[in-house]
Amino acid sequence: MKNGKKFFWGILFLLAAAAVIAGQLGYLKGFGFWSVLLSLGILGLLIDGIRKRSWGQILFSLAFLCIVNAGALGLERIAPWPVLGAAFLGTIGLNLLFPGKKRWLRHANAAGISDNSGAEEYEISQEEGGSESVRCEVSFHSIVKYLHCPALRRASLECSFGSLSLYFSDVELFEGRAHADVDVSFGSMELYVPANWRVINNVSSSFGHSALDESPLKTDADAPVFTVSGDVSFGSLEIRRI
Q1: How big is the CA angle at 181 (ends 239 and 177), to the nearest 5 degrees?
Q2: N or C: which end of the chain has fewer CB within 10 A?
């Protein structure tokens, strides 16, 4: 996966180099040097958004392409705020019409999850060997959840246009290892993990932010390993120790 991303961005940089030469030769009249470079970078985010089927990343990448090249494309009258407003409203509509993943609805305080809401979308499944997987999704509201799981192997966490705070204080990792896949778009997610866990943050961010609290860090060689990967688009992910 990392090699694929390096190849992808390497191709974009080569295209940027070619665009610089083409601009100097007069083949890109109306497009400035910096607008071409920015457009290529935004184009990379657009293609990445299409790959992940992230409506927000797709529409806002298109919006920024229009803004950066408004003069050359004759779009000065609708850039920037009308374009950004249309991207925002379009993202909401497409997320409602075409949710990226299947959703489950369960009653609160069942299957090992407690929270401050009446009902939420989540699922806990039993896997081979006695391990468990967790799926939790939040949209258009704010939720605090406390997870109770004696043998967690994997977690799938999604937050869009809302906020999710998930506590792992009463969780044991299956055979000392577990993996969480996160998807945050236009929202915020906070994961509270025990201080003795060794956390590996492999999350990629597009117009977003992800951070791991490294202090206090008191883990030894045989500490449980919790790997977090996924994507943050126009949002934030904070991994905090408790």
Answers
A1: 75
A2: N
* Helix, strand, coil % in the chain, rounded to nearest 5: 35, 40, 25
91 C-beta neighbours (distance < 10 Å), count: 24
pTM value? 0.64
pLDDT class of 131 with cuts at 50, 70, 90 = confident
CA dihedral 219, 224, 228, 229 (to 10 degrees): 110
For the stretch 132-166, pLDDT in tens is: 999 888 877 788 888 888 999 999 998 887 899 99
Long-range contacts of 59-67 (CB under 8 A, 24+ apart): 59/86, 59/87, 59/90, 59/91, 59/94, 60/84, 60/87, 60/91, 60/207, 60/234, 62/87, 63/87, 64/38, 65/39
Query: pLDDT over 90 for what percent of the chain?
Result: 24
Residues 110-125: what's their mean pLDDT? 49
Could you give the CA distance from residue 69 to residue 35 in angstroms, rounded to a whole number? 7
Burial class (CB in 10 A: 0-12, 13-18, 19+), 72: middle
Specify whether the CB–CB gap between 61 and 39 falls below 8 A. no
Give residue 73's identity as a one-letter amino acid code.
L
Selection from 126, 130, 234, 117 nearest residue 166 by Cα: 117
Task: Report how far residue 109's alpha carbon sits from residue 188's, in angstroms, rounded to the nearest whole number.
Answer: 23
CA 37 to chain CA mean position, Å: 24
